[in-house]
Amino acid sequence: MLPKNMSNARILSFGYDASVTAFFGRTSSDTILQHAHTLVAELVADRQLEGAMNRPIIFICHSLGGIVVKRALAYSASRTSKMIQHLHSVFVSTYAVLFLGTPHQGSDKAKLASTGRKVIDAMVPSKVLDSDGKLLEALQQGSETLQNITDMFAPLMKNFRIYFFWEQQKTDLGTTFKYVVKEYSAAPILDDTERAGLPYDHRNMCRFESRTAPGYRLVVAALMTYALNAPDTITQRWANATVMLKAKRAAEAAELMQ
Prior knowledge:
Blueprint: H1 2-5, H2 28-49, E1 57-62, H3 65-77, H4 89-93, E2 94-100, H5 109-123, H6 134-139, H7 144-153, E3 161-167, E4 171-172, E5 177-178, H8 183-186, E6 193-198, H9 216-257
Parallel strand pairs: 1-2, 2-3, 3-6
Antiparallel strand pairs: 4-5
């Protein structure tokens, strides 16, 4: 459906499989970083092959995918040394991020204790395992893993247009219906960000059946606005980044001469 509204857009998808360890296991930060590395590497490779290195990027993230994107942008922002500065291009080119049901502040501890397995099934890919229960710990309110990633991302937010979406219907968890990610966690109230609810449960809030489906026009209108405004901003950002990187290379050369 989206190509009909945005015919000039390149639409890519990224999937991750964390079946080797629990997604938020004992090495949860390392696991997320691996997904972030792969996302940046694959996106840079595709853009290099397609001659699209400087095109604006708009991320649309569902659930834990938003955590991976936040970590990926923090990683890309720090890649400015000579041999890997091409990885910095993802950060430079990103104009906006739409978060659909991303648990920025975790989920309710009591709810996880009673319906944890069903909550995990609703939030992560079906291949993800949680054999030692560490995922439940990381998804709880106050999770150190989530907080660390938020702390990395927070200073970067001023560079992007941000739109938070939360689920307005409860998800069937087998024996009960509950919100998987509550509004306060999915859509924190922050300056210079947008927020709205979508009339779906957590699983289906990113699945629109038609162009007239509730919420579809809301999301697409935001995408179209961002796509219209992005080129000028990203062109200027690339100009600034080029100057910054040249200055870093000159400073490194001067240091070697000393």
